Amino acid sequence: MNCLFYTGANRALVLAGLSRGYTVRLNLALIGFGAVGRAFARLIESRRAEYPFRIAAIHTARHGTVYNPAGLPATPVFGPPARSAEEFLDRASPHAMVELTPLNPATGEPAVSHIRAAFARGLHVVTANKGPIAHAYSALAAEARAARVLFRFESTVMDGAPVFNLVRKTLPGVRVLGFSGVLNSTSNLVIEAMREGRSMDDGIARAQSLGIAEADPSFDIDGWDSAVKAAALANVLMDARLSPLDVDRRGIGRLTPERVATLAQSRKTVRLVSRGRLSSGRVRLRVRAEVLDLTDPLAIVQGTSNLLLLHTDLMGVVGTISLAPGVEQTAYGVFADLLDIFG
Ligand SMILES: NC(=O)c1ccc[n+]([C@@H]2O[C@H](COP(=O)([O-])OP(=O)(O)OC[C@H]3O[C@@H](n4cnc5c(N)ncnc54)[C@H](OP(=O)(O)O)[C@@H]3O)[C@@H](O)[C@H]2O)c1
Fold first, then answer.
1. φ, ψ of residue 174 in degrees (nearest 5)
2. Better pLDDT: 111 or 4
3. In 52-69, which positions are buried (b, 16+ CB within 10 angstroms) versus exposed (e)?
């Protein structure tokens, strides 16, 4: 069988190779190999016969760095760390970079710099890290266009459930005027634990056991994760050019099992809600632990489930829901983005 190794950021070349029956291999370089990275590696392996992707290099913070242009095994043996993302990408020479480092809600770094290093090398980028979208989306989107590469980030909000792709691909001509969403799974699990009379720490431990808590779970509890998602949604869907620091934010840190029990007696509950709305030409963003009737659409999400409602001009309120997503769905979002990029 013919084998075409694709060495540039040229989608047409890949498509031409596929249509001629070549075996096209697309090498991916991952920065970050934690819960999402490992789930993504399992997904790639499970679809190896149908799709041309292979992980050819991985760079991490503490485990080190590993390269093999012919593809890495499921549990790679890491060598000494590359000195920088630039050195890593130069040696890996991949067709696309996948950025999966932890969220830094204050600056979006070092992920923003990792993405810029990839653009500078003509690489398409997929990330599940919402920091860069919340802090630097408009600049990064412009830099991707200038570098003639594609930049995708579906997993940054609601894991792999369609949010950005939903609007981009299925709502042409629609303006998003606002949104409301229950977007943080860890806080849902904490509220659920409290409803059962257990503590905040029990809920956090459950989220950690599922691999869905942020590396620092206070980012979930204090509303930072929800604020970062609100900024990302506003930046991409409403051209807001805001950062998480612009979000009027309050988390669930002061919530107690007693308060949750009292609310339950009057058929109410609490959800950590992210809201955005266009008002007098400005986008305003808010994160709050809101008291909701049990019948409120935002209150129906349980466990790790997420719900987002988009308030639009031509389509009214339209939503997306993800029931009990796990890290596999985040990995799917990364995979879907790669399929979107490489056609
Ligand atoms: N987990 C989820 O369900 C989920 C859902 C949606 C989005 N996300 C987002 O996806 C991203 C990855 O999440 P995760 O759960 O996989 O995180 P994780 O388990 O904490 O793994 C993070 C990985 O990044 C590496 N890393 C940290 N700092 C680095 C640096 N400066 N340079 C290179 N590598 C670095 C770590 O290296 P070491 O292994 O050496 O420590 C680790 O491999 C995060 O931005 C998160 O917000 C996660």
1. -90, 140
2. 111
3. bbbbbbbbbeeeebbbee
CA-nearest residue for atom 21, ligand 1, is 34
* Residue 124, pLDDT above cutoff 70: yes
Q: For 40-62, what is the mean pLDDT?
A: 96
Ligand 1 centroid from CA 129, angstroms: 8
Residue whose tokens read 């796990």: 326
What is the pTM (predicted TM-score) of this model? 0.92
Look at ligand 1, atom 23, and give the residue with the nearest C-alpha.
Answer: 32
Q: How far apart are CA 308 and CA 310, in angstroms?
A: 7
95 alpha-carbon distance from chain centroid: 21
Q: What is the structure's pLDDT at 212?
A: 85
Torsions phi, psi for 84 (to 5 deg): -160, 165
Looking from the CA of 147 toward its CB, the CA atoms found within 13 Å total: 22
Q: How are the residues of the chain apportioned to helix, strand and coil, as percentages rounded to the nearest 5? A: 40, 25, 35
Q: Is 36 in the pocket of ligand 1 (CB under 6 A)?
A: yes
For ligand 1, atom 19, the nearest C-alpha belongs to 34
Ligand 1 atom at minimal distance to the Cα of residue 214 = 47
Averaged pLDDT, 21-39 = 89
Q: Report the separation in Å between the CA atom of 90 and the middle of ligand 1, taken as the mean of its atom positions.
A: 21
Q: pLDDT category, 13, cuts 50, 70, 90?
A: very low
Q: Is the beta carbon of 160 within 6 A of some atom in ligand 1?
A: no
Q: Are the CB atoms for 260 and 269 separated by under 8 Å?
A: yes
Whether ligand 1 lies within 6 angstroms of the CB of 57 is answered as: no
pLDDT at 7 over 60: no
Dist. CA 96 → ligand 1 center (Å): 18
Q: Is the CB of 60 under 6 A from ligand 1?
A: yes
Which stretches of 129-256 are DSSP H helices?
131-146, 164-170, 185-195, 200-209, 218-221, 224-238
Q: Identify which of 107, 89, 149 has the alpha carbon closest to the alpha carbon of residue 125.
A: 149
Strand partners, 5: 25
